[in-house]
Amino acid sequence: MIFYNAGIYTCDKKNPTADTLKIIDGKIIAVGNRKDILRNANKEHAIDLKGKTILPGFFDAHAHFWKIGDLLTFNLDLRDARSIDDIQELLKDFSKKNPHLKWIRARGFNESLMKENRLPTKEDIDQVVSDKPVFLQRTCAHIATLNTKALEVCGIDKNTKPPFGGEIQRGDNGFPNGVLSETALGLAIKHFPQITDKDYEKMILAAGKEFLKNGVTSVSDPAV
Q1: Would you tell me which of 52, 53, 93, 98 could form a disulfide with 7, CB atoms 3.0–4.6 Å apart?
Q2: Which CATH number applies to 2-57: 3.10.420.10, 2.30.40.10, 3.90.1150.10, 2.140.10.10?
Q3: What is the helix (H) or strand (E) element at residue 211, kind and residue range?
Q4: Does 59 have pLDDT greater than 90?
């Protein structure tokens, strides 16, 4: 396969740009000018990119690789939620499609983008899922909302003291409203089902596919 009439940035100081690239069996074997590479080439496998740009693979210097895979596989993605109603509908649908899950975990909501402009509470979640623990993590990953079932499973009640550096938000009656922040998230996370090797494999493969789809070929995970 040959791609020509392209703007190619090579990262080679001696030859920083080129216009043609040749690939055989998934490997780049030539980068250079159109005249040299197309000489004696099979024109049926040559594609005119009409000036489009080709760049080397990107390197993401800070990404939590398997956690991105977790979001793509075992988590409910809430990044598009624009209201509490949206979260509830997504939760209801996800719960019906995944009855085997012992916990429902979701991530990505941002209350500043939502109609109500507030964090969801346990009551909001209880309206749609009350029979199993639910953990909704904010987009920043420093705040989460649990439903009543999750609070019960984790033993978080009116008398629970937050760990150092964490917060358990409470309603006017003094009982937790479901919102935890910072180190208090650990009160819930330690109760999640253990991740198996098969789970990690599925998450890592999903993350790899997503990165490659977006042109990222190398990743540095600061947590590894």
Answers
A1: 53
A2: 2.30.40.10
A3: helix 197-213
A4: yes
